[in-house]
Automatic annotation (TrEMBL):
It comes from Agromyces protaetiae. This is Acetylxylan esterase. InterPro entries: AB_hydrolase_fold, AXE1_dom, CE7. GO terms for biological process: polysaccharide metabolic process. Residues 1-318 form the Acetyl xylan esterase domain. The active site is at 187 (nucleophile), 273 (charge relay system), 302 (charge relay system). Substrate binds at residue 92. GO terms for molecular function: carboxylic ester hydrolase activity.
Amino acid sequence: MPRFDLAPAELRAYRPEIAEPADFDEFWRTTLAESRALATPPTLTKIDSPLTLVDVYDVKFSGFGGDRVSGWFIVPAGATAPLPTIVEYLGYGGGRGLPHERLGWAVAGYAWFLMDTRGQGSGWGAGGDTPDPHGTGASSPGFMTRGIHDPAEYYYRRVFTDAALAVDAVRSLDAVDESRVAVTGISQGGGIAIAAAGLSEGLVAAMPDVPFLCHFERAVGFTDRDPYNEVVRYLSVHRDASERVLRTLSYFDGANFALRATAPALFSVALLDPICPPSTVYAAANRWGVGAEVVEYAFNEHEGGQAVQWQRQAEWLAARLAAPVE
């Protein structure tokens, strides 16, 4: 893939105007309050596993509307002291899969929680366990246009609420040091992590990796790749709906959540990425509330840094946790 977006120097300074609804904060305050009022304590069930160096728990917690959402919670075997904790969100179409698929954070000494993404889990990996019981109006195949006619009905309202309540649930667990919780994710997971960082207080860090769900006005139509192209296909049929659709998306734009983030962030971006174009990533990173560091992969597409980026995240987070509290 040849370089197709802005030049690197332009990307690093890219701060576009982003549409933001006047009631953005009230919309999310009300949304979270309604679901928190319905929440019940998370349940943990320890499972038998061949993984002898970690303890594995099947978790169910209350998400949007009180819906039960699945997750994995994995800690070093026998851990008793409260641990710094990573909450991770998944890429588009994937489910939580099997616990042995992702062990890096737990074997590095962290408690680690992986949130299943409601309604997803049949696109790749080993499957998901969380249904999305809420209906939508007309939509194109995929998740991007489900309920897109109305912010209150939009699919990602439910997912982002799940993400914020996952942080709540994790903080209630005995093995978790609630003052040292970080969020992370790749692609869609990175976009969800940005939303969680904008909706949650007191996080120690956010680590969005080649994040999706940012700067919709540019992304939709700028790239011909899914998932953004799901919106293009929808609008090619619903020809008079573009204003309403873009208004809905403005409530879910990572660039708007970035302004509200209070935790330090380490982003990654791939400069040849045709799925999450680099300008859309920088639109969020450059608006981050307390400033963000960005790692660039100049010759990678959407795979980004993969294991190299995880190593950088681990080193960066360890340095932050070792720094004295200001």
